[in-house]
Amino acid sequence: xxxxxxxxxxxxxxxxxxxxxxxxxxxxxxxxxxxxxxxxxxxxxxxxxxxxxxxxxxxxxxxxxxxxxxxxxxxxxxxxxxxxxxxxxxxxxxxxxxxxxxxxxxxxxxxxxxxxxxxxxxxxxxxxxxxxxxxxxxxxxxxxxxxxxxxxxxxxxxxxxxxxxxxxxxxxxxxxxxxxxxxxxxxxxxxxxxxxxxxxxxxxxxxxxxxxxxxxxxxxxxxxxxxxxxxxxxxxxxxxxxxxxxxxxxxxxxxxxxxxxxxxxxxxxxxxxxxxxxxxxxxxxxxxxxxxxxxxxxxxxxxxxxxxxxxxxxxxxxxxxxxxxxxxxxxxxxxxxxxxxxxxxxxxxxxxxxxxxxxxxxxxxxxxxxxxxxxxxxxxxxxxxxxxxxxxxxxxxxxxxxxxxxxxxxxxxxxxxxxxxxxxxxxxxxxxxxxxxxxxxxxxxxxxxxxxxxxxxxxxxxxxxxxxxxxxxxxxxxxxxxxxxxxxxxxxxxxxxxxxxxxxxxxxxxxxxxxxxxxxxxxxxxxxxxxxxxxxxxxxxxxxxxxxxxxxxxxxxxxxxxxxxxxxxxxxxxxxxxxxxxxxxxxxxxxxxxxxxxxxxxxxxxxxxxxxxxxxxxxxxxxxxxxxxxxxxxxxxxxxxxxxxxxxxxxxxxxxxxxxxxxx
Length: 664
Ligand code: AMP
Ligand code: ZN
Fold this sequence. Notes:
Elements: H1 3-23, H2 31-47, E1 71-73, E2 83-84, H3 87-100, E3 107-113, E4 116-123, E5 126-132, E6 138-140, H4 143-146, E7 163-171, H5 174-186, H6 195-202, H7 208-212, E8 217-224, H8 233-242, E9 252-254, H9 257-270, E10 278-285, H10 288-294, E11 304-308, E12 312-325, E13 331-342, E14 345-351, H11 355-361, E15 368-373, E16 380-384, H12 427-438, H13 450-458, H14 473-476, H15 484-496, H16 502-508, H17 516-526, H18 529-534, H19 537-540, H20 548-559, H21 561-572, H22 581-585, E17 595-599, H23 607-616, E18 620-622, E19 631-634, H24 640-648, E20 652-654, H25 656-663
Parallel strand pairs: 2-11, 17-18, 17-19, 19-20
Antiparallel strand pairs: 1-6, 3-9, 3-10, 4-5, 4-7, 7-8, 10-11, 12-13, 12-15, 13-14, 15-16
Helix pairs in contact: 1-2, 12-13, 16-17
The structure holds adenosine monophosphate and zinc ion.
């Protein structure tokens, strides 16, 4: 087998595994083996750039940066849907239809997936473009992000038309959404509100490798094209499924509005068993000739109707309002409810957000309240049943002091939440901050868990994370559930954290709004904690992607003498508070503002090394050539189309040697 055949056969094999796993939900290979094969393919593709294919399974990881999404006019306008809410609405619709078409009418019932609509264009079995609905006439080209979605086939199988569009919904399954939020909360970021907005926001991420990390899916529901050779909606769904698309099996062909209603009622009851959210059902006239006869109104097809579910609501008693203190000191009021069944789960608590929310709705303890689960995962209180308010009810007075440490709360101008300012003495803040410090993405201290941290603080053995480095085995052993061995592991784990690189230490410090990415940016820019301590707000905002809010938070953190003292101690214990010397020796800003595309094979260094050199010197690496590319670094065996495109756009082409002289 020659190299090209080898590459093609690996691609085909990986595609099939991908299909089995994501579309059929039936894995045919372990993740590990899949990874090995993918790496093998990647290595072959790197060594033989002539055989580059933008739809190869290796392209799923993303990496393209898009600053501005191009506007694209749809070949077929993307209409909205008319809504119905009752049996009467549906019967009226049927009457209107029957006046306009001859013969029997069958309907395809589908679920109404709650996400972002998407139009995919395929040509010769390959995905060529993915565009958002936009205003229906034109949308944004988000191909780079959509390519990373595993349920979007990059290559079709079977007997597909030469060119067609297919429409679907980009959704975020509930489980994946919840996982993302667990991670955000652990990073002290505000959790996402609901799966729908998060899915549609994901399509506009500038870095497609970020989109690749999100567990998005694409569910398909409609074909558009000129020679599709399909006569009904239901047949279209089946065909699309056979070409490799994910078309949910719940779609059903029915013969009457009564059957439509059965379908609606069934799914209204059972929708909570689905892995994703739906907000109703879509009913479509099945026969495409009848669809043509019916045509469109100014905004929607006459042959389709959405049936919207009502957001589920129950009423229950609000027993007590309690207040939680987060690791940043933010206070969250919580409604403790009489347990009640709602949308398939038992609800005992609801978020009250903040003081304004409570006073706006005049929510009081003892009230009968209406609780709703709409698009949001956490139920919310939408109103109070005033007719049931007890006569002796008293208005809620928001707490003025911290429930954990009694300190008087503050509320900053323009912020909705109250804060406990007792940064160094409020137990949940102190414990939470140390728990964050030791967590996996921060200092990753082995042998020390969140509960032990709480124990250490409560026993008065530590007061902040710098105290960890003075803990002795003798101090730890007497703690609950500690043995000699585990105490040793704990102390060793703390000791090894001294090698963790600067950027992660910076993240571990727990500065408000400084998550992993921001920490990396700051570390790279300032190179040492001392430089960062001296940075002014004005200086900070000149750093790429650092806004005012982050800048102010950083300045505030380092203006505290206590924090500076803790950092001095960390320094004294030997933690990495600057970028290591050898890393630093190779870093400059010489390529600042320049974007490079690297293609082909090089003599003196690998592509990875070359990319690292570019980034270490302040440049950006992009995978595709556009008018924003500053240089194309061309190696041996570079694809001719890349060269042609670069020449077309007048982009300078460099050899590896001329690139090296740029750096000198
Ligand atoms: P609306 O935005 O309420 O006008 O509803 C129209 C939108 O419903 C379409 O743009 C699609 O994004 C979405 N939708 C979800 N599921 C379906 C489906 N099975 N068939 C058609 N549209 C659907
Ligand atoms: Zn407090």
